[in-house]
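agent> Task received from the user: take the single chain below, predict its 3D structure, and emit structure tokens. No templates, no multimer pairing.
agent> Plan: (1) validate residues, (2) run structure prediction, (3) serialize to tokens, (4) report one or two observations.
agent> Step 1 OK, no nonstandard residues flagged.
tool_call: predict_structure(input=
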Amino acid sequence: MTLLTLSVPASAANLGPGFDSLGLALSLRNTLEVRAAPSGIRVLIEGEGKDSLPSDAGNLIVRAMLKVFRLADRPAPGLELRAHNRIPLAAGLGSSAAAIVSGLAAADALTGLGLPRARLLQLASDMEGHPDNAAAAIFGGLNLVVEGTDGPAAHPLPLGLSQVVLVTPDLPLATSDMRRALPRNIPLEDAVFNGEAARRASLGELPESAVWQSLAQRFGLDDSQLEELQHDFWAGDKLDDQLVHFLRGLRPRYKTGVLSNAWTDARTAFTEKYGLSSAVDALIISAEVGVVKPDARIYRLAAEALGVLPEEAVFVDDSAQNVQGARAAGMKAVQFVSTAQTVKEVRQLLDDGR
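)
tool_result: status=success, residues=354
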């Protein structure tokens, strides 16, 4: 006899910047049928994981159910669990969360405890180690999960999507393995440039000092540590002398310029420290014009500063995004990989344009 049937959705988590905090429920669902049995708990699996998932007390569904039975201080009855699995395993679609939530909800219904959904989220998060997929499976829709004094709490967010397209790699990888693959350190350049203060400084909205102060607060640095960070950061800033020599050689036949996403003090560094004013005809600095690459406007400003049309210009950058932006603005563009490769490709474009 079927005692109850549950349907639990797949989920996508770690959305954008929402690591372990944003979870989105999907229309793909697993179904669990709970039937009475003479004794013990047996799991019959159809679909995903049929030949790999345990069918005994090691199954996540069973482990979750036993957790609730212990909370209710009741022995587990004899049960037959029929799991109809449609959510792919180890594919980042919340298959573990779906199993845990289905087990918790099934046992809650059987015991009559009537656990609030917030409590189910706490239990699921304890078992899985992160709450985002579980929140989506329990509450549906898009949820922001915040850790509070009583554990994780889910906050629903408006969702403007009508359809989600899933592309999963043909390489199953458990969440625990994916987490071990994450880098434990980030490059110094990324730590400095990827913050909100750095973004605003590149637009000329904040002085450079505000960027360093923001980093000091973010990483808890005292004055001496901040000074050391600044020294290490600028120590890696070197000029490509060979490329600058190439630029000098293009003049006066061609006009040359530097287009840089940089802070308010950059012009002084470019002219006094690196002597670029004698190598180029124009310096276009994002903080001075209030626009950053890859915004199309900054490429047009650069072309205007050089007195050429965008289609007459050749742009070089090591960022693929910035190169694409230049091409979208009508420029020819080369992505810098090495000095020799860049010089060769620029010369070819200039020869083709004669």
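agent> Step 4: summary for the user.
Residues 241-352 form a domain with the Rossmann fold fold (CATH 3.40.50.1000).
agent> Done.
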